[in-house]
Specification:
This protein has about 140 residues and is mainly β. The protein has one helix at about 50-55; strands spanning about 5, 10-15, 35-40, 55-60, 70-75, 75-80, 85-95, 95-105, 110-120, 125-130. The chain has a four-stranded mixed β-sheet, with no helix packed on it. Strands 5-4-7-8 form a four-stranded antiparallel β-sheet, with no helix packed on it. It is globular. The mean pLDDT is about 80.
C-alpha cells in the first residue's frame, strides 16, 4: 500500500482505497492501465538541509496546457490517470520559489521515481522509470 494525494482535494489516502474519505473522489480506477504512479524521493539524503527540504513540493504540469497533473511532497506517491503518453514538466518548489527541473514523457501504466542526485557543487533532480514502487 502506498499513500497518494487525492487528485481532487489533495488529502493523503491509500492507493487501495475505493474513494477518498474526505471528498469521495474515486481512487481505485476501473482502468488501471492508464494510471501513472510517481514516487517522490527523500531529498534530505543527498546533503539537503533538513529545515529547508521539509517544505519542498514537487508540482507536475502538462507541458502543452500547463494544467497541474499532480503535486506531492517528498516521500509521497502521486497517481495520475493518462489516456495517452503525455509530456510533463516537473517543478520543485521550496518556500514559495519554484524551479523547473525537467520535462519528461509519462506513459500510461508506468511507474516512476523522481529523485534527487548530487553533483560536485549542485543538487539536481531526475525522473526514472522503475519496475515497482517501494510501497507496492
Amino acid at each position: 500500500m502506498a499513500l497518494i494525494s487525492c487528485p481532487e482535494c489533495g488529502r493523503q489516502v491509500s492507493d487501495k482505497a475505493v474513494a477518498c474519505p474526505d471528498c469521495g473522489y474515486p481512487i481505485a480506477s476501473n482502468r488501471p492501465d492508464g494510471d501513472v504512479l510517481i514516487r517522490i524521493g527523500d531529498f534530505t539524503k543527498n546533503g539537503g538541509a533538513q529545515w529547508a527540504m521539509r517544505s519542498l513540493t514537487v508540482i507536475i504540469r502538462n507541458h502543452e496546457t500547463n494544467d497541474i497533473l499532480a503535486q506531492g511532497n517528498q516521500r509521497s506517491t502521486v497517481r495520475i490517470h493518462l489516456e495517452s503518453p503525455t509530456t510533463a514538466d516537473f517543478y520543485v518548489q521550496n518556500i514559495g520559489k519554484g524551479y523547473h527541473w525537467c520535462t519528461e514523457v509519462l506513459k500510461p501504466g508506468k511507474k516512476y521515481e523522481f529523485k534527487q542526485f548530487r553533483k560536485t557543487f549542485t543538487i539536481g533532480y531526475q525522473l526514472n522509470e522503475v519496475d515497482h514502487i517501494d510501497a507496492d
